[in-house]
Design a protein that fits this description.
single chain, 81 residues, mainly alpha, rod-shaped
Length: 81
């Protein structure tokens, strides 16, 4: 179809279609995007799990090395029956 100067700015009819095709110099651009999306998705899933692990981790208070009663109590509480 030949375009003339009068066609500029005209509204396309229903028989015309505009197809946008990304130009890729190599076939790797889609695989790069898939890799980026995969890495971001895994990061979004793993980050809260790591944070919650540290949030719910029991905090051990340090015990004075010369407080034998407290050390014994802690050792017995951590030893299975």
């Amino acid at each position: 179809m030949d375009h003339t100067v009068s066609d500029i700015g005209s509204v396309p009819t229903t028989t015309q279609a505009v197809v946008l095709v990304p130009s890729t110099s190599n076939g790797r651009s889609q695989s790069n995007w898939a890799l980026i999306v995969t890495v971001l998705s895994l990061t979004a899933l793993i980050t809260p799990a790591v944070y919650l692990r540290f949030f719910f981790q029991q905090v051990e208070l340090s015990i004075d090395p010369t407080d034998y009663a407290a050390r014994t109590k802690r050792a017995l509480s951590q030893t299975p029956p």
